[in-house]
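FAQ: What does the model actually see?

It sees only this:
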Amino acid sequence: MGDEFDVIVIGAGPPGENAAGRSADNGLSVAIVEERLAGGECTFYGCIPSKTLIRPGDVLAEARRVPGAAEAITGSIDVGAALAQRDYITSSWDDAGDLRWFDEKGIAFFRGRGRLAGERAVEVSSPDGGTRRLTARRAVVLACGTVPAIPPIEGLREARPWDNRDATAVKEIPRRFLVLGGGPIGLELAQAFRRLGSEQVTVIEGTDRLLPREEPFAGDEVRAALEAEAIQVITGALAVAVRREAPDTPVTVVLEDGRELTGDELLVAVGRRPNTSDVGLDTVGLSELAGRFLDPDDRLRVALPDSGEWLYAVGDVSGLALFTHMGKYQGRIAGDVIAGKDVRDLADHGIVPRVTFTDPQVAAVGLTEQEAREQGIAVRTVSHDTGGVAGAYTRGNGIHGTSFLVVDEVARTIVGATFTGPEVQELVHAATVAIAGKVTLDALWHAVPAFPTMSEVWLRLLEAYGL
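And it is asked to produce this:
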């Protein structure tokens, strides 16, 4: 194995793997460097294990909405089996499968900490203490991701709170579970742990509503569902202190108004920060970006002082859209640009799909109504009950939610869409296609939804618009 490659990728999560794989498919020689598990955060500690833990509760909730099936539910979730499935899905935190994929692609894998070491150079510090210098003929791709943000709250670090890694790798379900943060990660895990057996779950959100990134109704509907499951939701409340006497003792969160909340474990899910503090940015004249998102251009290139065009950033570290699917997309774009193809990143600028896997789910893409108006777009919104179609009636009782479109009145195209309700994640891709393709509402009128499916809500939305 030589030490010179066309492309070197630092970080073997999904974005880095896609950048490496696309480069290899384009005929380039590729090396990838990873300090931890190849497959990254999403595979082992994020999307995959969390959705696996969510699934048992979702299946039971779905069955309870169906007369006949509901009566067949006579027991509770087998937590041991649920955790065993999580272990199976994550290969018990073994990345051998990813390493085999690298071999099949002809990608050289280096286990160790990768840092920039000057122009087109990467130094790899291996676990045994050795170092190796790799050189890239064409490009270096930074795909080193993010780490959980821990806010500067008195006593928080000392209380040893959980982050997403601790929660998704859990061995025992805590009886009392506190969650700091009312975004997707916090809400998904709060509901999952309640359904897996936590007797007392409390969500604490500093802003005045849950899911502040989404349309206001989305957070309201999720809140109502959580509270119906006896999950306490506190919004507009800032945590000012955390206390814990010893590792196995309860943890107490003190709120700004003096209230104190006590649990057996505390999950901190208030966002993530870029993992750029120690990747050698100073060696290429980018000291000012250490600890910050890298903000690449539409070809995923990071601007260098000497105007060089060999450094790329994909995935969370870019700061463009902190979702696995967007990072994978960016990886593919970067792999093509490095190979000399004339492609650009378009999706990160107004076409980002996102799903919060609570029950009800929140599936959205593009701009919210407020974002569209702030951009000066003349918009009109239309909505319909997600459960108000025949396809929903056949799926059971009590299926509700909101389907909502943000329409550019001048172009007569969709610029944003949000769907709430059980299992609505599959509805959002149609909206993504419509936004990406700039399909007019008049053209969408001829995209006939099959009957009886949930997709018929699209017809109801177009009728609400006046077509």
